[in-house]
TrEMBL record:
Entry keywords, A to Z: FAD, Flavoprotein, Monooxygenase, NADP, Oxidoreductase
GO-annotated molecular function: flavin adenine dinucleotide binding; N,N-dimethylaniline monooxygenase activity; NADP binding
Protein name, entry field: NAD(P)/FAD-dependent oxidoreductase
SUPFAM superfamilies, sorted: FAD/NAD(P)-binding domain
Amino acid sequence: MAARTPKPRSAQPTDPPHVRVVVIGSGFGGIGAGVRLRRAGITDFVILERADSVGGTWRDNSYPGCACDVPSHLYSFSFALNPEWPRSFSGQADIRAYLERVTDTYGLRSHLRFNHEVVEARWESDEARWRVTTSQGQWTADAIVSATGPLSEPQIPELPGLADFPGKVFHSSQWDHDYDLAGKRVAVVGTGASAIQIVPSIQPKVGRLTVFQRTPAWVLPKVDREISALEKALHRAVPATTALRRAALFAVREIQVDAFVRRPALLKLVQRMAERQIAQQIKDPALRAKLTPDYRIGCKRILLSQSYYPALAAPNAEVVTSSLREVRGSTLVAADGTETEADVLIFGTGFHVTDMPVASRIFGDRGQTLADAWKDSGMEALRGTTVHGFPNLFFVIGPNTGLGNSSMILMIESSLTYMVEALTTLQSLGATALHPTERAQRVWNQRLQHKMARTVWTTGGCRSWYLTEDGKNTTLWPGSTSSYRRATRRIDLAEYELIKRQIPSQQRVMA
């Protein structure tokens, strides 16, 4: 563990407000960070949110049919169990309402600053602090918690002629609820988690539905049901039953991990279940062939739906097994030459995940952006949270902390434990900041990628949004959520360089 001392900090009359921590984003990560900071006795913080309300991805994504594919009792904070979930897989409105309740229950309103989009965060080595510039002014802070999330910046392909399309165009995360799709010729581009919820929701009302499918997805039945009044009453009366339900859901998913990360062959039984659903719901052999993937299940995200295939088999639906190549007026041209007329173009093309947009706005101790630091290697961090050259920058859902089979709330809580541990350790040592050594970060990621080599995401024979253009998986965690919790339970100071802010001489005399 090395230590270096920056130049003394001298306050200026024009200095912006200073806080101990700036949190960026108010989705699950940002709200969770606020709660954990307050519970640790750290109340000098702000949560900067570019929108006008909390919710993150569950605020932005309000498309028809939007719901979580993780059971609700597991997709919630361990410190804020919710006995009132209406369904086993609750919808977007209920999840957003849950986050609003957590915000109020834990007194976070006074910390929130809405309509504050972070345009730059720059580490000032002389002052050993961050200067954060937002759309409404500046802040300085000892530390930054980046909780922008990987599903925050929509990705729309650059297509020739798209700007001249005469109809309506929007991304699934920017749904236009004022536009009536009834009777329209609608094209949906993409077959991911959003698209399989949108398609069955709009198919009955549109005139014609065309789905551009570059690669088919494996789809399992979604066993969703209403939570009975009796169940909710029991959870309210005996809170331990809610915790027990959550623990059972957690245990089932921990058992599944081995098949994804060490023995992908074990997924054959799951694949047969998906094949059975296609056979039962798609009677047309030609359409069934279009919708059957040629890669191992789990390689791409497994989707859950019992209504997707029936919607595609409907008389007003068509599947184009090719990506969209260009737009010629109202004519959509696929890569295989197929032409389709459309009035509405909906992109279910996902988000900027492996090229985290916020990285181009964060400047480290050498003046370099985080995007530049990751340019050659792809996204890398120590334990998914901290990055060499970026002191006191903590990620929530950072590089290689995503999951393929369980609840991201589990990973969020682990990373927040690590963040609080780091901040309280700094305070106990009288240090100002820390960042990982280059060696510690390199060794961690070498071991991680070694484990990644045998996962289904690497060996399953597909190309997914988990991977960079070079084929490196910088998104997912190749282990159980329990193993990540153990890895982030304590901070190992041998992996870090400490920075101590020097106290000006006049302040030492006054003290």
